[in-house]
C-alpha cells in the first residue's frame, strides 16, 4: 500500500486559542461600528474559523481590518484637526485684526486728544484775547463817557417841555430865561450858550429840551433853585414847576429839571434809584454827572461807578 502523504497536524501551541479568537472577534466587532462610515469592498472574502487557511490568515485579515479602520480614523482625525487648525487660524486672524483695529482706535483717540488740546489751547487764547478786548472796550467807554460828561458839565435838561408851533432858538432862549425868573435865579442872555430839543422816536406833544450854559456855577444854581421850588410847593401846597413857568400858553403841563446825564450815567442813575428802593437807602442823587447814594442822614456818601458795584453793595 503506497505511502499516503498526510497534512501535518497543526500544533495547538502554535495556533490561537478559542479565547484569543473570541477576544479578537469582540474587538473587531467593536471596531466594526467605526467601519460603517465607509463602504467596503463587497467582494472581500471572509474566512471562517474552520477554514483550511487557519488562524494565521485570520490574524492577517484582522490586522488588515484594524489597519484600515485605524487609517480611516486617522484620516478623520486629520480632517478634524485640519478644520480645527483652520478655525484656529481664522480666530488668530480675527484677533490680529482686532489688535490692529484696537491699535488704530488708540491712534485715533490720541489724535483726537491732541486736537482737543490744540482746540482748548486756542479757546483759552481766544478767551484771554476776548477779556483783553472787553477790558479795552470798557476803558474806551469810560473815556468816552468822561469826555461826554465833560462836554455836558454846564448843561441841564428840561423834561416834558411842551412843543410849540413855529418854535425857534429864540423862543427856547426866552422860555429858559422866564424859567430862571420863576426860580429866582439871575441869568443874563449871554450866559445861555445853546438850547435845543432832543429828537424822539414818537411824535409826542412834549419832549426834552437841553439848555447849555456858560458855567457850571450857573447850572448848579438853577438846579438848586429848582429843588427848593419843589420842596416849597410841597410845603405850601402851591403849583409845582409847569409849562406856565416857561411863559407858555395853554394848559399846565408839569416840567422837570435835572442834570443832562450821559447815557451810561442815566442808566446807572436808574439802577441806583431802584437799588435805593429795594435796599432801604434814603438818598440817591446826581452831581456833576456822577451818581451818589447815602443810606441814612449823616452817613458817608457812596459814589456809584458801575453796575457791578451795585451788585457788590447788595451782598454786603
Automatic annotation (TrEMBL):
Q: Does the keyword Coiled coil apply?
A: yes
Q: Which UniProt keywords apply?
A: Coiled coil
Q: Where is the composition biased (Basic and acidic residues)?
A: 32-41
Task: Tell me the superkingdom of the source.
Answer: Eukaryota
Q: Where is this region: Disordered?
A: 1-51
Enumerate the spans annotated as FP protein C-terminal domain: 262-313
Show the InterPro entries listed in the entry: FP_C
Q: Where is the composition biased (Polar residues)?
A: 1-14
The chain's coiled-coil residues are: 109-143
Please verify whether the record's keywords include Calcium: no
Q: Know the name of this protein?
A: FP protein C-terminal domain-containing protein
Q: Which organism is it from?
A: Diatraea saccharalis
